[in-house]
Fold:
Amino acid sequence: MTNCTGKNRVNQYFPASLGEFDALLGQFLAPSAREARRSYYAPTSVWEEDTAYHVELDVPGVEREDIDLTFDKGKLTISVERKAPEEKADHWHEERGYGKAIREVALSKLVDPATITAQLTNGVLHVTVGKSPEAQPKRIDVN
Structure:
């Protein structure tokens, strides 16, 4: 026969709150500080207008020669690399990421690859992909 004293035995093994449990898991599953410094993520925005698609990536510290764009079978692939500084520094704290980031955006196959343009301004990469004429909305006059 089991004695039920009302005490939750799970609390003996897990922290009291879900937030504490999440923090505990993060310590075991999160990348080490050294790995986090090497990883790089480029936040991205994508939107559509009548005549074009637009993709913007935040890429501070990335040089033009470290950006590669390709468009194939309706997929725009953007590869950027943010290189770590050459000098060795013993940081007290480091959150900036370095390395390669690849973003892929699936677009309609009805785009005009000849219209794809890209600009890098103040650490923001803006890519414009024009739609082909048959993919653009048409206004029909009523007689």
In short: The beta strands are 44-48, 52-58, 67-72, 75-82, 99-106, 117-121, 124-130.
